[in-house]
Design goal:
- By secondary structure, the chain is of the alpha/beta class.
- The protein has a single domain, classed as Zn peptidases (Aminopeptidase, 3-Layer(aba) Sandwich), CATH 3.40.630.10.
- Helices cover about 40% and strands about 15% of the residues.
- It contains 14 helices and 12 strands.
- Strands 3-5-4-6-10-8-9 form a 7-stranded mixed sheet, with helices on both faces.
- Helix 2 crosses helix 14.
- The radius of gyration is 20 Å and the shape is globular.
- Bound molecules: zinc ion (ZN).
Length: about 350
């Protein structure tokens, strides 16, 4: 039986839910999208550790926004559950940074997990329009987010919640600066995901476009600098110029010790290939979809395609954020100890 938590919401549904609770959503307005939709920012907690959460940059990845919609509503409905946490942390949340993209993907989001409407209707913005690579000021959406963040102290932890259409398991992106400091944490994260039935999506891209491999399931976060370099070296300065900074680079510009992460959990899992750095099954599926993008028939059994139920997908996002908050807090406390000696 389908429960309410299995229904993927559109941004408009979140705005409606928010209105029914008061305060009026306009209290949280931090800017407008190109088509005039409100972009909202929420601040919760009084703690010393600043955590920034943003979702929706790629609007064909709706699990991140859905996770934040429901988190915000839960905080409003049950503040007592978060009291202790908010004594230690301050959360800055932009539940959807690209509402126009959400509307453009509405045809399949409301019918998810049906595969045919998804393949026929999913829309992704190309470089030059891609909100994740538009910081600080490419689009009004980027300027709204930056204005909101600038009013607060620099974040210790920044998360951009993303997703993949298909993958063989979990993929988590971590900024290069934290490669060493997350080694133990990554092992513990891996066992948490395995308990949820997800193996790592093991793809070693050999540092292609600045995505450095940190072992099965982990890669470095995207960098506009690396994308520009990649296209410049290919002799394509026009494409290079379409890449600005990612939200991770923006936050690292304010706090170079920040921990930045990008969740890349799939809408649909495919069969896991032998873990050798090459997700053969996933790559074969991508190739078939490239030849015939609208073709769903026959793909499901051949590639073992199955959706991750939304309730579970949102839980994975939340648990990842929560686990990273613990890591950021530990690191922050250690740095206070050292600073105190100066
Ligand atoms: Zn994405």
């Amino acid at each position: 039986m389908k429960t309410i938590s299995d229904n993927m919401w559109l941004y408009s549904r979140f705005l409606k839910e928010l209105k029914s609770r008061r305060p009026n959503p306009s209290t949280h307005k931090i800017g407008s999208s190109e088509s005039g939709e409100p972009i909202l920012g929420f601040v919760f907690g009084k703690g010393q550790i600043i955590v920034s959460l943003v979702a929706g940059a790629h609007a064909d990845e709706p699990v991140g926004p859905n996770t934040l919609y429901r988190l915000i509503l839960e905080i409003m409905d049950h503040p007592e559950r978060f009291q202790e946490l908010f004594g230690r942390f301050r959360l800055l949340i932009i539940p959807h940074v690209n509402p126009d993209g959400d509307a453009a993907n509405a045809s399949w989001i409301t019918r998810w997990p049906e595969l045919t409407p998804f393949l026929a209707g999913m829309k992704r913005e190309l470089p030059g329009r891609d909100v994740e690579f538009g910081y600080p000021a490419m689009r009004p959406e980027n300027r709204a987010a930056v204005g909101f963040w600038e009013r607060e102290a620099p974040a210790h932890l920044h998360f951009s919640l993303h997703g993949m259409q298909f993958s063989e398991g979990y993929l988590l992106l971590i900024n290069d600066e934290w490669e060493k400091r997350t080694r133990t944490w990554r092992r513990s994260f891996d066992s948490m995901m395995r308990k949820e039935g997800l193996l790592p999506h093991d793809h070693d891209r050999g540092g292609d476009k600045g995505f450095n491999y940190m072992g099965p399931g982990f890669t470095s976060t995207p960098k506009g600098t690396a994308m520009r370099k990649f296209f410049l070296e290919k002799g394509d300065p026009d494409t290079a110029a379409l890449f600005h900074s990612s939200s991770m680079e923006y936050h690292l510009g304010r706090n170079r010790d920040a921990l930045c992460m990008v969740t890349e959990f799939p809408l649909y899992l495919v069969k896991t290939s032998p873990q050798n750095g090459l997700p053969e099954n996933y790559l074969a599926l991508k190739e078939e979809l490239k030849q015939d993008p609208g073709q769903a028939a026959g793909l499901v059994p051949r590639f073992g395609i199955r959706p991750i139920p939304l309730g579970k997908a949102m839980r994975l996002q939340r648990r990842t954020v929560r686990k990273a908050m613990d890591l950021a807090e530990t690191n922050f406390e250690i740095s206070i100890l050292f600073d105190a000696g100066n």
